Amino acid sequence: MKDLDIRINLDPVNDKILNFPVRNNPGDGKNIKNQKAVVIGTNGTYRTVDVDEMDRIMTALGDNGIAKSLSENYVMLFSTESIINAEFTRYLVGSVLVMKIGDDSRIKNLTDFDIDMMRTFFETDLVTLTYGKEKFDAYPLEYEDVA
User: Fold this and answer.
1) Which H or E run contains 58?
2) How far apart, in whole angstroms, are the C-alpha atoms of residue 83 and residue 41?
3) What is the CB neighbour count within 10 angstroms for residue 10?
4) Which of 39, 54, 85, 119 is 20 to 30 A from 75 via CA?
5) Rounded Cα gap, residues 84 and 90, in angstroms
């Protein structure tokens, strides 16, 4: 693998990265690209994503995407296709894209602490549902969240 090669001659038009070897191990928390969001599943798995993957997910969700506040600084996006109705509550089964929003309303880079916080906020609300003999975890939603 080639080494990192950057050319800086104090010329913003021509200064650039000539070679940028990127480790890309989703979920390891040490990706050299900026971690912009984390995808968390109701099955307990997660992975970090960079801005390109985050944009791809948001574009693919399109009109089927719903945003919900996870806390004051974190917002999650998910698909309407992941919602199930059970008794008097709606549940999310699948995965969510979670981002950190700053005071300036911009998406912020994530630290390992942010990722742990997001996972904790999400996973502490999970409940176990039963369908026949099958059990699975789901995230409860308020009707206002998905109306």
Assistant:
1) helix 51-61
2) 13
3) 6
4) 85
5) 6
Does 48 reside within a domain? yes
Query: How many domains does the chain fold into?
Result: 1
Residue 26 tokens, joined? 């989703």
Which of the residues in the chain have pLDDT under 70?
A: 1-4, 10-13, 15-33, 143-147
Distance CA(142)–CA(103), nearest Å, equals: 25
Task: Judge whether 12 lies within some domain.
Answer: no
Cβ(27)–Cβ(48) under 8 Å? Answer: yes
Looking at residue 142, its pLDDT comes to: 83
Q: For residues 24 and 32, what is the distance between their CA atoms, to the nearest angstrom? A: 8
Residue 4 covered by a domain: no
Q: Is 122 left (phi over 0), alpha (psi -120 to 50) or beta?
A: alpha
